[in-house]
Amino acid sequence: MTGNTPAADRLPGPTIKWIYHFSRLIFGGWWVYSGVMPMIDPSWQPLGQEQEAIDFSVALIESGLMFWVKVAEIALGLAILSNRFMPLAAIAVLPINLVIVYWNFVLEVGTVEYTFGALTIIFNAVLIWPWRRYYWPLLAFRGRPDFSTAPGIQD
Asked: Is residue 145 part of a domain?
């Protein structure tokens, strides 16, 4: 490194980059697998051991909502695996992951469930962190609406 190297290049990027890509591949694969397997064999869908978890899972399945959750898992998992649309994909998984975390920490009890719940939180944080600059504008307290008919952002 020289004295003219930008600050961003001097940060611990390579390590963070490897952690990001490792997490992206594991998490994306996990999502594709979790989405595809119940469509191949519906009995594979975990219902849980606790009655509340079973009731919750059965309600999602019987209402048809679980099918759409699985479609979203496949689509988002493929986006994450291919590293495409990542600012969107990293945030789009959050609503489903909130339900997964709730299921693992509240409805179902056990070491495996707590581990999967914690891993879900960790993978989400690792996937969101590199894209954080895309999210800061969403926190504008008083945004300026764009009423034009032109595509894109008009400033």
From this structure: no
